[in-house]
Each structure stands twice: as C-alpha cells, then as structure tokens.
Amino acid sequence: MAKKIFSELKQLISLRSLRARICIIILVAGVFSSVFMRYGILDNYEELAVENRIATVSNQLMIVGNHLLSNSYFTIKTDERNYSSSRAVINAELETISNLYEGRVMIINAALKVVKDTYGISEGKTIISEEVIRCFQGETMSHYDKEHGYIEMTTPIIDTVSGTVVGVMLTSISNDAIMATMEELNRKAVILGNLMLVGIVAFSVLLSSMLARPFDKVADAINEVKAGYSDETISVPNYVETEYIVDAFNQLLKRMKALDDSRQDFVANVSHELKTPMTSIKVLADSLLVQENAPAELYREFMEDIVSEIDRENQIITDLLALVKMDKKAQELNIASVNINDLTELILRRLRPIARKKDVELVFESMRTVVAEVDEVKLTLAMTNLVENAIKYNKEHGWVRVKLDADHQSFSVAVSDSGLGIPEDSLAHIYERFYRVDKSHSREIGGTGLGLAITKSAVLMHRGSITVTSEEGKGSRFVVKIPLTYIAGGGGQTA
Ligand code: ADP
After folding, report:
1. DSSP bridge partners of 405
2. What pLDDT is recorded for position 294?
C-alpha cells in the first residue's frame, strides 16, 4: 500500500500522471481567472469612481459658477467680495466643496489673477498655465494624477448673455476616499480570493480524480483478467478513449484464447496420434503373450505388424519435429542460391520408386532454368510433401505433372495429379495439423496429417504462397509461388 502511494506520488511529481495534469490545469485556470477578475474589477472600480467624482464635482462647480455670475463676483472689489452676504454664501459653497472633496478651489478672472483660493494662499497671484489658458478658450479639462493622489479640473465660467468665458475655476480634489474604498475592496478580494483558492484546490483534486477514475477501472479490469479471476471481455464505456483501450485488450484476449485453444487442440491431437500406434502395439503384444506355444509364423506376423506401428510412430514424431522447427519464428533460414531445376529433378528421382509401385507416371515440365535464393532443405521438404501426396492420393495408372516456371520476380512449382481430388468443404482445412480428408484411408497409406502444414510453413517462411484447386474424382493442382530473391527481416510466418 505504502509502496503504491509512494509510486503514485512520484508519478504526480513527475507530472506523468493524468490526474496531476488535470489537477494543475484546473488549478492554473482557476487561480488565473480569479486573479484576473480581482484586478479587473478593482481597476474598473477606480476608473468609474474617478469619472463619477469628476462628474459630481463638475456639476457642483457649474452651479457655483452660475452663482458667481449672478452675483457679479468678478466685477466687484476684493474686500467687498468677502463681506457681502451673497458673496459669503458663494464662498461658503466653495469652502464646502473643498472640504467635502478634501481639495482646493481657485477662481481665476480674465486677467489670469486668482480672485479666490479656498486655501487662501494664492489670492492676487497670476496663474499662467496651459490648462487655464485653454479653459479660457472654452475647454473643460480634467486630469487624474494617480501617483500624487489627486484629480485636477479646470471649469470655465461662461457668461450666458455674451457667451464669453469670464473666469476659470481651477480645482484639485483628493482621491483619498476612492483609495480607501479600493483598499477595503482589495482586502475583501484577498479574503475572497483565498477562500476561492481553497475551493479551487478541493475542486481540482475532486474533478481530476473523477475524470481519471475510468482509467483506474480499465487497469482494475485488466488486472482481474491477469490474475485469472475473470476471462470475460471487459467493458469501460465511460470515454471513447477507454473504449479504444478496452477493445484492443479484448481483441488481444480473444487472440490469446484462440492460441490457447489451438495449443490445447494440438496437444490433444498429438497425444491421440501417438497413442494409436502404441495401442496397436500393446494389443499385438498382449495377444502373443496370452497364447501359450504360439507358432513361430504367428510371432513373425505379429512382429511385422509391431514394426510397422513403430515405423508409423517414428514418422509422426519426425513430422512433428519438422513442424516444430518451422514454427520457431526466430529460426534462421539457411538461404543459398539454388538451381530449382536440379532440385526438382532430385526430388522426383527419390520419389519415382513409390510412383512406380503405384504405376503412376511422374512427369517434369521445366519451362526455364530457375536459380533462386532459398533454404534448400525446407523447400525440398515442402516440394516432396506435395509430390508424395499427389502420388499417394492418386489412382492406379494415374499421372503426376510437376511444372516449373518463373517470371522476373518469382518462380512457381505446380504439382497436378489425376487423383482422388479433395472435397470442397475440406479445402479450407487441409493445411491444419492432423487434418485428413479420409482418416482411415490416409492412415492406410501412411499419412500423418502434418505434411501440408509443414509445406505451408516452409513456403510462408520464404515469403511465398500456396494455392490449391481440386475436383473430386478428377484430381488436384497445388501451386507454390516463391520470390526469386529472399527479402530478409520481419521473421517468417507460420501456418
Ligand atoms: P497426410 O500426411 O495425411 O497426407 P497432409 O497434410 O499431407 O497429410 O494432407 C492432408 C490431407 O489432404 C490428406 O489426408 C488428404 O486427404 C488430402 N490431400 C493432400 N494432398 C492431396 C492430393 N494431392 N489429392 C487428394 N487429397 C490430398
């Protein structure tokens, strides 16, 4: 358990785990959007608050401006300005604005002279600044200085009768209140952000483990099959991806089962085939033993039968060994340049005595001289089996024709006979191990049912092909096609 947790932790750290990746993606996306939202909202708030403040103060300044005009503020003397009751009201209004917004308001007349300063320090001074001059041309201006924490505004006082700018109000107000609200908002955003972070972490861990769970299910199901608890096909349909993995696994399982079945069939067949001659030998020997004073002729007769059964057993074992050798994929072919005409002649010479015994005519038709890169021993085995079958499964006075031909890529050996032929439904099975069309007949003529399996293996090892056409009662034709040059690599296929 500890080992499993440790290995999972290691995979999490190395980011090879899907769970860790999903977790990190959600975490990054969550944190990024929460930070983005926080700064976005705060920035937006500041902009809005400054705009609002400018609009409110502008409105109030415009009202004061109207009061200034209606009270002829610019046309009277300075001392009178301070003592007349209506002027006192205007001054109070200006003071209120400057107190309310923690700022300073200066009234500048057409001669660019400060006629009123709520701070009381610049009255009588002349102000020549670009903003003031532009304001006299009718331009209302505002500027937010974030660094120094104030908003500066210039508001023209326009005589509604003449339409001229008679004065300018130069106002600067503090942004302290906005900053205080921002700080409070920021504090709350930090608390909320931290809470969100905890939520996002919990959510990402939960979601990542939920999303990765189907893959655990796949692993569990495969482990169950591996441990032998189940050999059923598995199904995890949660994702298309898990379905792909599971489908591939099920196919592999099916293939392995088929291989296992064929292995078991093969072992059962081998045991059966090897047991048959043994049973015959035992029956023959037993019947000799129970007979006291059995005549010497009987002994001889039974002994001959026993020897023929031993020969048969031997033949089966030899064929099995040949087949096993072909089955070894790693088995290297002993490739050499071989004259196929000479090889065929040699094979036919060896088989001619058997053909003669059955009075079967054996003909070799060579269309051209063929030299090919082949494994001589294995090709001899394959061709011998084909010609031997053509003789074995032939009728009296029949014929066997072996035709050798080639094109620029491959050579072909066609073995035709005038024999029994193969029933159509058996054609698909003749290359199977121990398959015989007629068991008793094949056994009678010494067949083991392994010959064509060996032939097909040998041909496929040469990257060749074997085809058969046959008609019952008329004869068969086997055609083997093999490339003239051997292409190495990839390992040989077996039947
Ligand atoms: P066997 O050792 O029994 O000959 P093979 O694998 O060589 O086994 O052949 C399988 C079966 O195919 C044979 O039992 C036989 O019935 C059939 N067969 C093979 N070659 C021929 C042929 N030329 N003509 C008719 N039947 C054939």
Report:
1. 412
2. 84
**Per-residue pLDDT reduced to its tens digit, 378-416:** 999 999 999 999 999 999 899 999 999 999 999 999 999
DSSP string, 231-245: -SPP--TTSHHHHHH
Identify the pLDDT of residue 266: 85
The whole-angstrom separation of Cα 110 and Cα 127 is 11
452 lines ligand 1 (CB under 6 A): yes
Q: Which two tokens stand for residue 241?
A: 């991806």
- DSSP annotation of 333 reads P
Output the DSSP codes for 267-294: HHHHHHHHHHHHHHHHHHHHHHHHSTT-
> Which residue is associated with the tokens 């210039």?
154
Burial class (CB in 10 A: 0-12, 13-18, 19+), 274: middle
Cα of 389 from ligand 1 centre, angstroms: 6
Q: How far is the CA of 442 from the centre of ligand 1 (A)?
A: 7
419 pocket-lining for ligand 1 (C-beta < 6 Å)? yes
Least Cα distance to 262 among 453, 39, 34 occurs for 453
What single DSSP character describes residue 121? S
**Predicted TM-score of the model (pTM):** 0.57
**Does 384 contact ligand 1 (Cβ within 6 A)?**
no
* b/e per residue 200-212 (b: at least 16 CB within 10 A): beeebeeebeebb
Task: Indicate the SS3 state at residue 410.
Answer: strand
Low-confidence ranges of the chain (pLDDT < 50): 81, 330, 490-495
The conformational region for residue 23 under phi > 0 = left, psi -120 to 50 = alpha, else beta, is: alpha
Q: What is the pLDDT of residues 406-451, one digit of tens each?
A: 999 999 999 999 999 999 999 999 999 888 888 777 777 778 889 9
Position 284: which residue type? L
Q: How far is the CA of 392 from the centre of ligand 1 (A)?
A: 8
442 CB less than 6 Å from ligand 1? yes
Does an H or E element contain 345, and which? helix 340-357
Any idea which residue has 């060994």 for tokens?
Answer: 321
What is the number of the ligand 1 atom nearest to the C-alpha of 450? 6
Mutate to test the pocket of ligand 1, among 360, 452, 474 (most ligand atoms within 8 A of CB): 452
